[in-house]
Structure to design on (841 residues):
């Protein structure tokens, strides 16, 4: 902090967030989170998926109000009821998905909503262009022109437009949510240059990233969140990657996961150097009968993409796939299904369940070939299939004719799971099997997974909950940036070892140097 | 107002859910209840002649609404069907007048209907262009083409054997009514019991889930539109043969009347929900209301407004029901 000339401008920190609490129906998202950012400080927020970072920045940007707690700017309490309030308090947020108007020019985007006006309140186009040029010059950006159409710009340049937009509104606090997620290395370097310039001007930057190397390259302090609570705030200079990972994952394994040891059989799925750009890069893995293989990684590491490539939703561009030893080339979900592969998608609302349909109809949807004779559905067979599923999965429903969308999340998940098992698969790919469901339904699904493995099913499980991965898996694979970067046996896998591989903290090169 | 209350918008909030749950039963009650209510007011309404005229003259709307219901259940819409019925009627009539065998004249309408609709289905499904845009374009092409080609002239001197609508089965059941009932029953059974029928509901209810289950969305949509074209062809034949002449214009806003029948019949405008039984009852109800207006001495021009109220009320009820489901 010695490089900071603005530090002593006033005693109060520029941004102060105090004891924020926020609950959503059924979930406690934040419980008493506090942190501060000074003028000219880059303050990183770090935490696993679901740790509460997004909720926190949404509260600071006025997207929704906290249940309790307060936000102070320059030591003065601000009421952030709407995004506009945050803007007036000098807070600007750059989200991962850039919010720009692709058909409009750079200048129009920057001044959307606050264009300079001339007489009769008409837009003063010349002033707008001049101000845009001044902003561009102030950040030494020379490859952008005020009248370029934003839709034609690179991702890096679009992000620069967003930053300029924030500056044009005199933002003094700039929140950046995973700004480098979609950037090339060159653009990351330029982003860091800009962040350093903003720092020098006294802007406080709240920087959210999963990439530890970036945090070490650019941040002054880092605040770690876990399960919606504040864990620690450290000076970056006084910590290291291992220490941060420890802070992030240090969670207790609170429930027992009933994976029982069963004999592991022959390989069911073998993929070799599977390739599908951009997020499946030379992936090789094997899943055997009776085995549960956990696939860990951060959101965006390519786990779901890999599952969809194996399942034929986005067929592989190259590489080899074997099912039960037979070489196969899976081009569509229908083909994958006929080969005995089942996929329970991540988002059961949009991908798994047909909500207006009945429980019976949902159960038979993936097995219509089995219950239909000559194109017509045998109602009796269909009812038996659905009835078996309901009993086996202990789905709590008033009848088979209940509309599936009216059931609880856990019961919906059981139907999606059961629908696929109706087909008698050999390989089951589960994408976040217990996200968003209550503890009871979770335990039920874990019990079922154990049972299915014991019956000789091969299971590939994607999960963002480390305790679940560690509890359920016979083997853990870790993905990062589309590649499998580590493999652990059940004994080797710990929160620290898997967490470190997920974050990539062992390669601590300073990208931005 | 009698009709509206009967159509399922009772004020008792506790009953609302149950009532909506079986739209078909409710519409059937509404059809009968309205007949009795208007009959008490003016007994001539119940004369066999009037009732049969109501059914006869509107059966083609119910037949077209069967196809429309499938299209809407699949998550699409078609606003070209009214213009298409006019074109198909003209094609069929022109062939008949020019001496083509009557069966050929009839078949031509069915085949052309399937071809035009399947073509639209291909564009919608494979080029992924919203159905409303594609069918709006087709609406203009067909309407403009029809008036340009015919020059607005009516087709007269149709051979007697052409008049399909004149046939009476067993000497009492008019063919259009028979066809309406037959098409409704067959389509209902197919939608309910066939794997392809189930696929329509799956695609309309959740296209992504259907895809992951190995159901081809494009193929399902093309199939639905092709069938819709077949029903449009049948509707065109009934329309063309019920009068002695074929006009070069179709009843204005015919497509809207057909869509209204589907939606009031309980087909969710968001896709995935609804039956063709409901849409047929709704088509009959709308025709009945139009006729009843005359008998209770209200200007028949009010029928548009009544249709509008019915459609708004049904759609709002459907949306509210879906919200409740989403909240559960």
């Amino acid at each position: 902090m010695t490089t900071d000339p603005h530090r002593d401008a006033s005693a109060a920190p520029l941004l102060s967030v105090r004891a924020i609490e926020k609950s959503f129906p059924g979930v406690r998202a934040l419980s008493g989170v506090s942190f501060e950012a000074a003028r000219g400080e880059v303050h990183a927020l770090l935490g696993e998926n679901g740790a509460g970072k997004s909720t926190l920045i949404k509260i600071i940007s006025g997207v929704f109000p906290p249940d309790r707690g307060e936000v102070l700017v320059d030591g003065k309490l601000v009421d952030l009821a709407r995004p506009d309030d945050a803007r007036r308090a000098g807070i600007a947020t750059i989200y991962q998905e850039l919010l720009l108007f692709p058909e409009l020019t750079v200048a129009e985007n920057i001044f959307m909503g606050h264009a300079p006006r001339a007489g009769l309140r008409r837009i003063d186009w010349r002033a707008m262009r001049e101000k845009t040029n001044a902003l561009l010059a102030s950040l030494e950006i020379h490859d952008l022109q005020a009248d370029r159409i934003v839709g034609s710009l690179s991702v890096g340049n679009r992000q620069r437009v967003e930053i300029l937009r924030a500056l044009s509104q005199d933002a003094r606090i700039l929140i950046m949510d995973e700004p480098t997620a979609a950037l090339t290395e060159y653009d990351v370097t330029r982003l860091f240059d800009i962040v350093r310039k903003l720092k020098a001007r006294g802007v406080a930057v709240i920087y959210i990233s999963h990439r530890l190397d970036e945090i070490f390259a650019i941040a002054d302090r880092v605040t770690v969140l876990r399960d919606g609570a504040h864990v620690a705030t450290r000076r970056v200079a006084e910590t290291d990657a291992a220490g941060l990972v420890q802070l992030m994952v240090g969670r207790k394994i609170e429930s027992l996961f009933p994976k029982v040891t069963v004999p592991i059989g022959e390989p069911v799925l073998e993929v070799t150097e599977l390739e599908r750009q951009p997020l499946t890069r030379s992936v090789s893995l094997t899943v055997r009968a009776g085995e549960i293989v956990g696939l860990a990684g951060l959101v965006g590491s390519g786990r779901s993409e890999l599952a969809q490539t194996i399942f034929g939703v986005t067929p592989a561009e190259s590489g080899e796939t074997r099912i039960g030893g037979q070489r196969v080339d899976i081009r569509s979900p229908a083909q994958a299904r006929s080969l005995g592969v089942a996929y329970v998608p991540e988002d059961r609302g949009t991908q798994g369940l047909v909500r207006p349909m009945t429980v019976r109809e949902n159960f038979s949807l993936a097995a219509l070939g089995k219950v239909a004779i000559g194109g017509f559905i045998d109602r009796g067979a269909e009812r038996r299939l659905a009835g078996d599923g309901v009993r086996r999965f202990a789905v709590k429903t008033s009848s088979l004719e209940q509309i599936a969308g009216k059931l609880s999340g856990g019961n919906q998940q059981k139907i999606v799971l059961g629908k696929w098992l109706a087909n008698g698969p050999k390989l089951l790919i589960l994408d976040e099997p217990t996200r968003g469901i209550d503890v009871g339904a979770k335990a039920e699904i874990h019990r079922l997974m154990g049972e299915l493995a014991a019956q000789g099913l091969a299971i590939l499980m994607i999960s963002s909950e480390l305790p679940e991965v560690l509890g359920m898996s016979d083997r853990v694979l870790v993905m990062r940036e589309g590649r499998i970067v580590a493999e652990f046996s059940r004994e080797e896998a710990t929160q620290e070892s898997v967490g470190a591989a997920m974050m990539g903290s062992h390669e601590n090169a300073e990208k931005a140097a | 107002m009698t009709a509206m209350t009967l159509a399922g918008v009772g004020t008792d909030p506790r009953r609302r859910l149950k009532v909506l749950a079986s739209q078909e039963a409710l519409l059937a009650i509404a059809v009968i209840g309205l007949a009795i209510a208007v009959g008490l007011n003016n007994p001539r309404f119940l004369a066999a002649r009037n009732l049969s005229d109501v059914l006869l003259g509107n059966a083609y709307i119910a037949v077209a609404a069967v196809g429309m219901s499938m299209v809407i259940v699949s998550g699409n819409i078609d606003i070209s069907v009214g213009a298409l019925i006019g074109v198909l009627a003209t094609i069929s009539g022109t062939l008949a007048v020019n001496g083509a065998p009557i069966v050929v004249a009839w078949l031509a309408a069915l085949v052309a209907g399937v071809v035009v609709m399947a073509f639209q289905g291909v564009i919608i499904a494979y080029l992924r262009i919203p159905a409303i845009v594609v069918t709006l374009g087709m609406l203009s092409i067909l309407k403009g083409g029809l008036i340009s080609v015919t020059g607005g002239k009516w087709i007269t001197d149709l051979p007697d054997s052409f008049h399909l609508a004149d046939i009476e089965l067993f000497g009492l059941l008019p063919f259009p009514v028979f066809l309406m009932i037959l098409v409704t029953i067959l389509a209902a059974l197919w939608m309910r019991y066939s794997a392809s029928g189930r696929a329509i509901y799956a695609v309309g209810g959740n296209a992504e889930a259907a895809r992951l289950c190995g159901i081809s969305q494009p193929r399902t949509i093309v199939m639905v539109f092709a069938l819709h074209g077949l029903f449009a062809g049948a509707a065109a034949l009934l329309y063309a043969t019920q009068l002695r002449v074929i006009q070069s214009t179709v009843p204005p806003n015919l497509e809207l009347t057909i869509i209204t029948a589907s939606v009031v019949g309980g087909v969710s405008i968001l896709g995935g929900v609804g039956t063709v039984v409901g849409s047929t009852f709704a088509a009959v109800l709308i025709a009945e209301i139009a006729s009843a207006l005359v008998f209770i001495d209200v200007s028949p021009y009010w029928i548009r407004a009544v249709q509008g109220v019915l459609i708004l009320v049904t759609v709002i009820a459907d949306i509210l029901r879906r919200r409740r489901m989403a909240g559960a």
